[in-house]
Specification:
The protein contains 6 helices and 6 strands, in the order βααββαβαββαα. Strands 1, 2, 3, 4, 5 and 6 form a 6-stranded parallel β-sheet that branches. With 186 residues, it is α/β, with parallel strands linked by helices. It has a single domain, classed as Rossmann fold (3-Layer(aba) Sandwich). Strand 4, helix 4 and strand 5 form a beta-alpha-beta unit.
């Protein structure tokens, strides 16, 4: 069970063309976009605030502002908010914290791309600032980590995502993405 729609926001991290389209697409990009689309439809129907966090690409030319790779993949209808960031953490140097507190948000549902980088950094900061964090399984992904021969084997993206969930500790909730439903959880 998650908080009611009034006190909850969904943070959609870096779901941008350069990260979900070849040649640099994350593992299960199409599946992630489909699942997130369903989640956001349910969230909006319940009156949950949806915030798209968009990497402005200071460190990565493939997502440089104004390029096709920088564009958000999921629709941003009226009522959704877009927050631009330049680093991994969506709170760092942005107005995200002020936006959340001004809207009475105490619970954030963190989804998107890359599990071990921007998703983790944002979830950790949310925890440290007193927000309840929900990290839906199936709601975030990353790249397979390549092997570093001869000693270190490759790590599949699904394992990386699970390690992120584990690293966040007992305070984070980990429901399956398709079971997260505010209408049912009120």
């Amino acid at each position: 069970m998650i908080g009611g729609p009034v006190g909850t926001a969904v943070l959609v991290i870096d779901v941008q063309r350069a990260l979900v389209e070849p040649p640099h697409d994350v593992v299960d990009a199409d599946g992630l976009v489909t699942r997130l689309g369903r989640l956001l439809d349910r969230a909006r129907s319940a009156g949950v605030l949806v915030i798209h966090v968009q990497d402005d690409g200071d460190a990565d030319p493939s997502i440089e502002r104004g390029t096709p790779g920088w564009e958000l993949v999921l629709p941003v209808p009226d009522g959704d908010v877009v927050v631009a960031k330049t680093g991994d953490d969506a709170f760092d140097g942005t107005g995200l914290h002020a936006l959340l507190t001004s809207r009475g948000v105490d619970t954030v549902v963190v989804v998107g791309i890359q599990s071990e980088m921007c998703v983790l950094a944002t979830a950790r900061t949310a925890q440290s600032r007193g927000f309840e964090v929900v990290l839906p399984r199936g709601g975030h992904t990353t790249y397979d980590v390549p092997a570093d021969p001869p000693e270190v084997p490759a790590v599949p993206a699904a394992h990386v995502a699970r390690v992120v969930e584990w690293a966040l500790g007992d305070q984070v909730r980990l429901p399956e993405i398709d079971k997260l439903d505010w209408a049912r959880d009120r």
